[in-house]
Structure formats: C-alpha cells, structure tokens
Please model this.
Amino acid sequence: MSFAVGNSLDAQPNRILLVTIHHMMYPITVDVLYQVFSPHGSVEKIVTFQKSAGFQALIQYQSRQHAVVARSTLQGRNIYDGCCQLDIQFSNLDELQVNYNNDRSRDFTNPNLPTEQKGRPSQPGYGDTVGYPQMANAAAIAAAFGGGLPPGVTGTNDRCTILVSNLNPDRIDEDKLFNLFSIYGNIVRIKLLRNKPDHALIQMGDGFQAELAVHFLKGATLFGKRLEVNFSKHPNITPGADTHEYANSNLNRFNRNAAKNYRYCCSPTKIIHLSTLPQDVTEDEILNLLEEHGTIVNSKVFEMNGKKQALVQFETEELATDALVCKHASSLSGSVIRISFSQLQNI
Model:
C-alpha cells in the first residue's frame, strides 16, 4: 500500500511533524532525530523515509503543544555545523503506524516491536522508499540526490566501462584507481593497459555509476596529471591474467546504504572525511598518517552516533585526492579506515 505522508504548507498545528532535511552531508538515523527533538517534548514515534524531496521523517509527539514548540524552536536550524538543515511542517496525519523498531523507524511507547519483517523493507506505508541495495530506477536515484540528478548527469547511460588516460604510470596501480572510482559506484574489475601504461579500463557496477564517475572525475588531477575520463567502446572488460577483480570486494561502497553513498558523490574537494576510525584515535595519529601527502590547513576529530570520525582540509584538491587514493582502506591501529570527499566548504 502507498501512503500519503500528509503535509501541506498551511496544515493546522498538529502533534505530528513532517521534517525534510536539506544539505544532508551525514547519515541521519532515528537516534539522531530523537536527540534533536526530544528536548522539546515527549516523542512517541519516528518514521524516516526517502522521497523525491529528499530525506524526510515523521515525528509524533505526545501533545500538539510539544510539536508547536519544537517546530518554532528548530525550524531552519542545522543538526550539524553547516549542514543537515531542518525544514519542518505540520503533518495532517492523526497517528503514525510503526511496525518495526530499527534505525529507520521507532515506536518509543512499544519497545517490544521486531526489528524487521523477514524479506520485507521496514516501512512500506510511508512514501515510496528507495529499493536497497540496488537502486535500479532513475526516480529512486534522483531521490537520493534530493529530488533531481546533478546538473549534466542524464541517468540514462548504459555503458559500464570507463577509459581513463593521462595517468601517472610511476605512481598508479589498480587499488589506487579502485579507491578513487569506488566513490561513485561499485567496481567490477580494472585493467591497466600494458601497451599504454598511462591508460586504464574500469568496469563499474552499472551505467549510472559509470556516468557519475565520468561526470565528477573528468579533469581531476591525480599524482600531478590531469585525468582524461571517458566512456570506453568496450561494453565490459574480459577477465584475464592482467585484470584485477573487485566484484566481490567488501570495500565496494554501494552494497549497503546506496542512497547515502549517492548523496556523497561530488568532484574532488580539499576536505576529506574519515570514518570507521579506532575509538581511541587522536588527531595527531590522523595527521601523521596523512601529512606526507602535502600541507594540511585544518583538521577536526569528532564523534557521531558514538563513532569516531574526522575531517582533514588540505591546501588543494589535488593533495586531498592523493591522500584519499593512497590511504582509503588502509589500516590505522587495526581499523580499516574509509575516506571520501566532504562537500563542506570549510571545517
């Protein structure tokens, strides 16, 4: 069954709020929303979902007065510095139906609900949720980008293989290419062309992911060379002794949380975001890991949902790209760290 989320700009004050989150740089879970909204009244239920307008949530308070106070206090505020802005309207629903208690929905009045129904997505009722893990249709992918595809991306490309040229043959290898191109989609296999050492073929998981990589990486600089990134005339790469296979790699980012990873796609920036860090990591350890790649302008270690993360700002996009390519999926005190570009303007 499909279900209208029940909102309008002139909806009457109500105990249920419809919250849209703009500029969502970090994942927002039920727990994060509860931390933000519970100081303003007794929160009974929260449901989150992905719609064409972007990431949204319905939040049910015990009373209408609590919801009115929360809306007037929080409207337009950011959950995190410079991002995750709250756009809050009154819903005209009377009561939220919550079937499961998990990261996407929660009934705080009924802690005994199951976490998931076997083989079914968690909230079929509210809004047309994105299909996981494969977001096959353009509408679902557009929803992940907040309602529309990035300018210049058609979403209709079906060519999966990319030809990259003007690489630095002294410094490049398959794993470094994987680290960069896996930001935009899953990698099936990579082949460095032995007869043209500054060329490589990269087969992506599907045509849309290949289009994102071509769009965001065309003209990027890596190891002192300006990359040429184009679609290949080959529909795929034939496996062989000179190909590296990545289809089953657990380092592919889009097997889980595909919508979140699409939202993080952007051209290389000066700021990289590090996650899955050791809990006791220090800022000095992170700087020691990265400083060989060039001048670091600023850095910050912080905790989100109980997990250590960091932002590191380099002097140029090229230095940040080199650091990401060399240090993504490397080990720091026993943890395999994950690095992506941040869309923040500064730290």
